[in-house]
């Protein structure tokens, strides 16, 4: 993101006294808005794993680990 200075340039802003002050009866220059300003919007996608897929994956890993251990010990085949 590129930075945009929101303040007006005092050298080219009419109605300002030297040093940036505003003489009596003048309206101060308006602020410009920054494109980055405003509240952060959270991403609506869910974070993390759902319980069912995580449980199935862990169960599959556990069954495979028990099967490998049983095969390594000669209990199967």
From TrEMBL:
Please name the Pfam families in this protein's record: DUF6480 (PF20088)
| Top-level division of the source organism's lineage | Bacteria
Q: Which parts of this chain are annotated as the region Disordered?
A: 1-47
InterPro entries, sorted = DUF6480 (IPR045512)
- Segments spanning the bilayer are 54-76
The answer to keyword Transmembrane applying to this record is yes
> What is the protein name given in its UniProt record?
Uncharacterized protein
